[in-house]
Amino acid sequence: MNHPAIRLGAVAAACVSLSAQAAEPLLVKIGHVAALSGPAAHLGHDNENGVRMAVEELNAKGLQIGGRPARFELVAEDDAGDPKQGTQAAQKLVDLKVNGVVGHLNSGTAIPAARIYAEAGIPQIAPSVTNPKYTRQGFKTSFRMVADDAQLGGTLGRYAVQTLKARTVAVIDDRTAYGQGVASEFEKAAKAAGATVVKREFTNDKATDFTGILTGIKAARPDVVFYGGMDAVGGPMLRQMKQLGIQSKFLGGDGVCTAELPKLASGQMLDGQVVCAIAGGIDGTLRPGFDKFKADFKKKFGTEVQIYSPYTYDATKALAEAMVKAGSAEPARYLPVLQKLSMQGVTGTVAFDDKGDIRNGALTLYTFKGGQREELGVVR
């Protein structure tokens, strides 16, 4: 027979044990994957810094999840923009049991990685992936922070004809999932608006010499040259266009629409000659908060926002918000909350449709003057 004092002591010990467990910090691992090496590394580090900034702010805020103080940790991986390395990085994050993933930077790496996260049940928010296929694979764990290529390429195709009055266009892509996707959507929209495609060419995402392609384009004398790819190739291409005396306007998607483009192009052909679009846009009442984010980011990291760090920042905050509301950092528990989330971020309202795409995604059109990117306007 148990003595009453012994029973009471056991109950008290159990309560102390439960209380200690409740007070024990909950480690929440946020995975991030991007190209941290290779030609797009500057964009990858920009994205990673957005996550890092959000993680540090979340820790400073002292959030609680399910009654336990949460400590967030960034787990960063490099996929070098390579699909094979991307799936390896994704599997590594799964093996490390991350609670959520922000990434990847590129469509070509994010699309195959999405299956790995889906099979593990881990939510993945892609901050800069624009290929429509990413959210068309049927995975309930895949989310996107920005408008896709159908909107981006289509908007630029219509802009070329309706605003720039282009009648003939040449189209080049880098044969990546992103580059081909956005170039095809541009071509489709430009044709539908009445333009003639006089040249359709391709290169690769590591090329440095475009003489053959550009010589043929020069002979065709298009009003507009559209390039689907990243700034590391787009910049040298612009420089060589200038050397060959090509006067066509140069259009591109978000991959070339970076603060680094003037340096990569050696300042050539940028004053009013380039029009590009970024998937995402800040206007109206959002502007003060976004400007503060940019100022805080520069103060913290000593560099300007490239493109998508505000979206990785918001994506990280969205994962945390869903965890807090669900009372759990377990992916299966907070995923249904994330699917229905509506949160105000520095980039606008973060809310996803039934495919995982951002609702009411915006685009921002830019040009370059005096070596600086200059906004032309936000469209939705």
TrEMBL record:
Signal peptide interval: 1-22
Pfam family membership, one: Peripla_BP_6
Keywords for this protein: Amino-acid transport, Signal, Transport
Positions in coiled-coil regions: none
Leucine-binding protein domain residues: 28-371
PANTHER family in the record: AMINO ACID BINDING PROTEIN, LEU/ILE/VAL-BINDING ABC TRANSPORTER SUBUNIT
Family in the record: Belongs to the leucine-binding protein family.
Protein name: Branched-chain amino acid ABC transporter substrate-binding protein
The species this protein was found in: Roseateles flavus
